[in-house]
Design a protein that fits this description.
TIM Barrel; 8-stranded parallel barrel; about 30% helix; globular
């Protein structure tokens, strides 16, 4: 890559900021309109349609570019107006659209638009295979996941054709971007739609089997990213666009920040091997910082050095924990009318004993997950997967292999080796949760099903997947009742999670290890215990760890939509999924039996399931929730 093609990409939330970052040396600006972007909470920011027209003229006159953020996930009620907005943006000749939602891509294709597409960081693109899938889908640039190492970035750049953009400075979320449902599943405000209430910035107490770190601390409060000292390494790795975060920052904050990176990139372009950090510029960044700084995942795994435990520099955000409500017997209601609908029952199991416990139930599919959690005993390996697949075949149950929610460049070869060694002729398909796994399965002729990690929130996203060979569409956990109904009205097969633990976020940071000041080299294997976080209202969030030491933080209460079974069946859901990989064989068999009985009653054109609903409440004395599906918290 020629260093002359390196771009400094700066944010702008209003006209003053846009002019300021151009004066500071930005080559391009990314901004949002007053509609359909992630930063709409402040009414005094973002650009009206008329301002966008003027912004294009202003920037193009100076040889600069304007990229428009359309990086939300969208719901069906927004799609008609969104199509009009796309037409407007193409008409005024913006230079690119930054998008996340595959439904928006489907609309874009139908309209025959030509403005270049950039894949948002919200898509959590972390592997070469995912980048190749983006290229197949027509994207021109990818904003890579902030969780990648420099070596992973260099490998992806070397073997791909897309432009590589990467965040160099600004806010960092503790979660893998796009895979955080913390805010939406607690209170219905989605981070994937720019409305996050920032529960990762709250104080928590961390506790485990053996001990309790009794003090409340900011266990998930990530420090800010600052990669100024490393721009030469980043250029050598092939990053062609250096992105600065901060569309809601004022002009006086952005000018010195953009200027520092302009001088650094100019120095690298002039003498790539002689770049040296300017101490005055570095000191200026430190003096004007909001939080303390970290280099993120560029050189090492996130550890305690990346977390601001004391909250001393944490900006105050006006949110706090909510009282989370649980289901009670009075939530049950009978339904009358025709209920004669065929709905499959799908169960995810964590080991052979759990699988054997449900073989005699009336189930249609079993999901065997490749995430490999440390706390689950007797989890899957190649031999046990083969046995499980054989058991399913012998009992006329379809077997599905599900890929992990997170697959980076460092993960994907192990995943490929596992998939390619399986008896695919006995498997209904591979349920994928990322674009890289989808790409590999497509290229190898494996049947593909869409997992919940693909974030399908509208019917057009499902259409795009279905037309590209995805045989089953998992509806996003973030969808509420009405948004779910819109997708179920389509004629492609759909699946919904109706019971089980709800993963709120996935992070490369180990909370138990980091809280004790340890790193991955001195790990005390706390992940083998039961441990979690407790907020100030005593809501308890269980933490689990996988074999790659990623932490998965869970909702205090398991999901239960059993009492909505008739409505979902009438609306057209094809499959109802029980997330059972963490349940004991005894508990799992009871839960599956209840759901199987409910679905069987629908086939008999009746629904009188209060006793089974009450059994579920009894099996989960800690509580059950409908989460965002109907809203289960107290204002």
């Amino acid at each position: 890559m020629s260093t002359s093609n390196i771009e400094l990409l700066a944010p702008a939330g209003n006209w003053e900021s846009m002019q300021t970052v151009i004066k500071a040396g930005a080559d391009a600006v990314y901004a949002g309109g007053k509609r359909f972007n992630m930063r709409l909470l402040r009414k005094d920011y973002n650009f009206s349609d008329e301002e966008l027209i003027n912004a294009v003229d202003y920037l193009h006159e100076q040889g600069k570019k304007l990229y428009i953020t359309l990086n939300n996930l969208y719901y069906d009620y927004e799609l008609a107006e969104l199509a009009d907005y796309l037409s407007f943006l193409q008409g005024i000749e913006v230079d690119a659209l930054i998008i996340q939602d595959l439904g928006l891509l489907d609309i874009y294709n139908d309209m025959g638009l030509s403005v270049p597409l950039h894949a948002s960081v919200q898509m959590d693109i972390g592997s070469l295979q995912a980048v190749q899938k983006l290229e197949e889908l027509g994207f021109k640039r990818v904003i890579l996941s902030k969780n990648l190492s420099l070596d992973e970035i260099a490998y992806i750049n070397k073997h791909s054709n897309l432009g590589i953009e990467y965040f160099a400075h600004g806010d960092l979320c503790i979660s893998h971007t796009g895979q955080c449902y913390f805010s939406s599943l607690l209170v219905g405000e989605s981070g994937n739609r720019g409305r996050c209430i920032k529960p990762c910035r709250w104080e928590y107490m961390l506790s485990g089997d053996d001990d309790c770190l009794a003090d409340f601390q900011y266990h998930l409060a990530h420090k800010d990213l600052m990669l100024y000292p490393h721009v030469a390494d980043m250029v050598r790795a092939g990053i062609s666009s250096f992105k600065i975060e901060g569309r809601m920052r004022p002009a006086e904050y952005l000018y010195p920040l953009v200027s520092v990176y302009r001088r650094a990139l100019d120095a690298v372009i002039e003498e790539p091997e002689l770049f040296q950090l300017d101490s005055n510029d570095y000191d200026g960044l430190m003096e004007n910082r909001i939080r303390d700084f970290t280099s993120g995942s560029l050189y090492y795994r996130i550890d305690s050095d990346s977390i601001g435990f004391d909250g001393a520099r944490e900006p105050k955000f006006p949110t706090s924990p909510k009282e989370l409500l649980t289901l009670k017997a009075s939530d049950y209601q009978n339904f009358t009318g025709s209920n004669n609908f065929k709905v499959d029952l799908t169960v995810k199991v964590g080991n052979l004993d759990s699988l054997k416990s449900i073989l005699k139930e009336k189930i249609d599919r079993v999901i065997l997950g490749l995430d490999n959690f440390r706390q689950v005993t007797d989890t899957w390996n190649q031999d046990k997967l083969a046995v499980a697949i054989s058991l399913c075949k012998d009992n006329d149950i379809k077997a599905i292999i599900e890929t992990p929610r997170i697959v980076t460049q460092n993960d994907i070869q192990n995943l490929i080796n596992t998939l390619d060694a399986l008896p695919m002729e006995w498997i209904e398909g591979v349920m994928v949760n990322d674009l890289g796994s989808w790409h590999h399965c497509n290229n190898n002729g494996y049947p593909v099903l869409g997992g919940p990690g693909l974030n399908i929130t509208n019917s057009r996203a499902g259409v795009l997947l279905n037309q590209n060979g995805v045989n089953l569409i998992s509806i996003s956990l973030e969808n509420n009742f009405s948004d779910t109904m819109n997708i179920l009205s389509e004629n492609y097969p759909t699946e919904m999670l109706v019971h089980g633990p709800l993963c709120l976020l996935i992070t490369d940071y180990c909370a138990a290890c980091g809280a004790r000041g340890e790193d991955f080299n001195t790990c005390g294997h706390y992940c083998l215990q039961e441990y979690g976080l407790t907020d100030e209202l005593n809501n308890q969030y269980r933490i689990r760890s996988d074999i790659n030491c990623r932490n998965y933080i869970y909702h205090p209460y398991d999901l239960c939509l059993f009492h909505y079974t008739p409505l979902l069946a009438r609306a057209g859901v094809s499959s109802m999924r029980i997330e059972g990989q963490f349940y004991t064989p005894e508990l799992l068999s009871q839960v599956v039996s209840i759901y199987a009985a409910g679905l069987q009653s629908l086939k008999s054109n009746e629904w009188n399931q209060f006793s089974n609903f009450y059994k579920l409440l009894d099996l989960f004395p800690q509580g059950l929730t409908t989460a965002n599906f109907t809203g289960h918290y107290r204002e």
